[in-house]
Design brief:
- There is one protein chain.
- The chain is an alpha+beta fold and about 425 residues long.
- Helices cover about 20% and strands about 20% of the residues.
- It contains 8 helices and 18 strands.
- The longest helix has 17 residues.
């Protein structure tokens, strides 16, 4: 039987977390925490959430679409030189790429600037687009080192899959996107619906573009929250309820279940009361007209969200076996409405070769269009991906999960699988 919605179940600590970390396997001495259910006793009811979120995390596409100077930074020649010198020094040291840290990737001139970028990602608009990263000049190896080194100034890199990839590769490997119970969509050329990843920050470095498509859309999940509260409070209440099951797609440690019960929007516990989003359902083709708006009060306390639609649509093997309930009509409608609001409010951008996009997963949803690659021998579309953690003790948001204070919270960790940083998709 599926657990009751109101049940408070104990969170079991995976066995691998009880074992000491080996620096032979984890060169920086820190292991990714992994995916976990929330602490259900810390989840809040719809009535406790704010009627409106205010502040810099709430933005509209009109704020930025004609103002690229507000969200685009071109690396200067001096900045590229500093990144390149740090990458050369790191490679000469012989340290494995999984051992890269701020201490062994020194950026004395850029450190202050990157600290400000980190603050803007966490508590401001939540995104930035860097341009003129010399990926073609440097090639994959040096580019990967410089990119990961840059990322250490924003957060701790964490594993993105069951194989321990801390440097991921978004690339079409010919896998079947309809096999959503097995296949991660980033390894296909299919459309990705609006979602948030299981990390605090996500980075994408464009190494090669597609022939057509593969373009990026982002949206403030706090703006989406406000719209839903005005137009469809019934949908927002469904998204806040801890009735959503997320598929772990077989990337589980010994003794763990293949799914997690959670919410889409959370209220930050024991902190500033901010709203955080954890989003992953895929909508069905439908069009749902909005309800009339109603007056709202305002608050500066925003919610949190994490969401990816493919991870709820792939759960039929569990619901058919009676382990979890199937998606209800209210949930199916909520997924449709959420996607439609994200689409109408999204800021569109095209990543060129040498661009790096960093986003907050706390209060920004992102999506990409389907794409078609160039015919061989031209390179396929290729983005290097980073998932970065920002623990609460270092300025990160407080999350209703038991690993909120861990340096490498979130991510995907299967038993003691060691981190690896491949230079291309595998």
């Amino acid at each position: 039987m599926a657990p009751a919605v109101t049940a408070t179940l104990p969170v079991e600590v995976p066995a691998y977390k009880l074992r000491p970390v080996s620096k032979d396997a984890f060169p920086d001495g820190i292991r990714t925490s992994g995916q976990h259910p929330p602490l259900y006793e810390k989840l809040k009811s719809y009535e406790e959430f704010p009627e409106q979120i205010t502040g810099s995390t709430v933005w509209k596409k009109e704020d930025y679409v004609d103002n690229p100077e507000r969200w685009v930074h071109r690396f200067s020649k001096e900045e590229a030189t500093e990144l390149g010198a740090a990458a050369d020094a790191f490679m000469a040291s012989g340290t494995p790429l999984t051992g890269i840290t701020k201490d062994n990737f020194q950026l004395p001139k850029m450190a202050g600037f990157l600290s400000a970028i980190r603050a803007e990602l966490l508590n401001g608009k939540g995104f930035i687009l860097f341009k003129d990263f010399p990926v073609q000049e440097w090639g994959n190896h040096k580019s990967a080192v410089a990119y990961m080194g840059l990322g250490t100034y924003l957060g701790y890199f964490i594993s993105q899959n069951g194989r321990g990839h801390v440097l991921g590769h978004v690339k079409d490997l010919g896998e079947d996107p309809t096999q959503i119970d097995k296949v991660r969509i980033y390894r296909t050329n299919a459309r990705q619906f609006f979602h948030a990843d299981d990390s605090d920050i996500v980075g994408l470095l464009c190494v090669a573009r597609a022939l057509e498509g593969g373009e990026s859309d982002i949206v403030s999940s706090h703006n989406v929250y406000n719209i839903l509260h005005r137009e469809r409070p019934d949908v927002l209440k469904t998204l806040i309820s801890p009735i959503w099951y997320f598929d772990r797609k077989g990337e589980t440690s010994q003794g763990e279940e293949g799914y997690i019960r959670t919410s889409i929007f959370y209220l930050e516990p024991d902190g500033q009361g901010r709203v955080y989003s954890k989003y992953t359902p895929s909508p069905s083709p439908s069009s749902i007209p909005p309800s009339p708006p109603k007056p709202t009060n305002t608050t500066t306390n925003p919610p949190i969200s994490r969401w990816d639609p493919y991870y709820i649509r792939s759960l039929t093997r569990f619901s058919s076996a009676g382990l979890i309930p199937p998606l209800s009509p209210a949930q199916l409608e909520a997924a449709d409405v959420l996607e439609s609001v994200c689409l109408r409010e999204a800021l569109h951008m095209v990543l060129e070769v040498g661009d790096i996009q960093f986003l907050s997963n706390e209060h920004v949803f992102h999506a990409r269009t389907a794409y078609k690659d160039h015919a061989p021998p031209a390179p396929r579309r290729h983005l290097m991906r980073l998932w970065l953690a920002t623990p609460e003790g270092e300025g990160g948001w407080r999350l209703p999960f038991h690993d909120s204070g861990e340096r490498k919270r979130g991510g995907v960790q299967v038993d003691d699988v060691a981190p690896v940083a491949p230079l291309d998709a595998e």
